[in-house]
Amino acid sequence: MSSTRGDRQLKHPQEAKDSDTLQGLVGAEPTDLNLAELARLRIRYRGFPGADTIQTQLETVLRQWQLTEEELFAKTREIHAKGGIYVGGSNKPEEEDWS
């Protein structure tokens, strides 16, 4: 009998950096940038077999902002349609990393 428990312990290569980002979102307001960051991380970790702490934090922030994933993605599609969320200034990540 094989266990999938080991699969649940996988570490995502961006987990440490993403954990810092999520810590900044917990307790924060749902600004355009924060919504975009949460959506980006939801996509990154969707179906990922592990990163339980990240997965829990993602759910916590969604509940905190009283959003479903569908509502989050609808809002961020509107934000990205306006453009400029990650362009120039302090809103631009050091590198764009959607993996």
What are the defining features of this structure?
4 helices; disordered N terminus; single chain; mainly alpha
Describe the protein's topology.
Elements: H1 15-25, H2 32-45, H3 52-64, H4 69-82
3D shape: globular
Gap between N and C termini, in Å? 33 Å
The strand count comes to 0
SSE ordering: HHHH
Q: Supply the helix-strand structural class.
A: mainly alpha
Low-confidence sequence ranges: 1-7, 89-93
Sheet with the most strands? none
User: What's the mean pLDDT score?
Assistant: 85
- Rg from Cα: 14 Å
Tell me the β content.
Answer: under 5%
Per DSSP, the total helix count is 4
What fraction, in percent, of the residue positions are helical? 40-55%
The total tally of domains equals: 1
Protein described:
The chain is mainly alpha-helical and 99 residues long. It has one domain. The chain contains 4 helices and no strands. Helix 1 (15-25) runs antiparallel to helix 2, helix 1 packs parallel to helix 3 (52-64) and helix 2 (32-45) runs antiparallel to helix 3 (52-64). It starts with 14 loop residues before the first helix and ends in a 17-residue tail after the last helix. Residues 1-7 and 89-93 have low confidence and may be disordered.
